[in-house]
Amino acid sequence: MFEAMNGATPQFVSRLVPYFDGGLFNESAPGADDGLEVLDLTEIPGAIDLLEKVAERDWRKVDPTIFGNLFEGALDESKRAQLGAHYTSEKDIRLVIDPVLMAPLLREWETTRIEAEPLLQTFLTSDSPRSVTQAETRLKQLRDAFYDRLSSVTVLDPACGSGNFLYVSLKAMKDLERRARAVPAGRAGVLPRWGDAAPVLWHRKRPVRGEVGARRAVDRLFAVAL
How far apart are CA 162 and CA 66, in angstroms? Predict the structure, then answer.
């Protein structure tokens, strides 16, 4: 994979692997001892079998941030500072992402929610077909605009070590996405219920949008370790 991303593999052989080049994925010179050698699991006896057994386990109740701690603990202690691979707890990470990443998004969501509430009431209760149509159109515009905004956010960790910063950032944005997920209600299930406990704006007619949004969000998480 690293060879393909570095351009060493012809494009027609590995079309699905992005091509970066620029030396970012170059393997260091033999004997350089700079901690940049690419790990080849095929050279470690039993490593592939062990990974296959681990993949068969149910990991849903395991907090992924713990793997950052395990990753750091497995490194040569003398190389941790050089690689920038230090475990940072979720509590400490939230001190950064809450005011910088999430606070602006939450303000935008609140603005969207406030505008949508009376529109939804009009959609659900008005006897005027024209008013219902206008309310529905505007609700869909608000829905799409907020989802597009959320899925277009780019997060860069300029000193990625264990990867916890990106994971916690993604988790926070997914939590906000869940607050804005479709909960069908209203006429013919076209628009959702608007509740105080879990305000939502999206509807079931586009269930794949959340999946697309999730993929787009993952595509916009970047990590660099220099």
Answer: 10
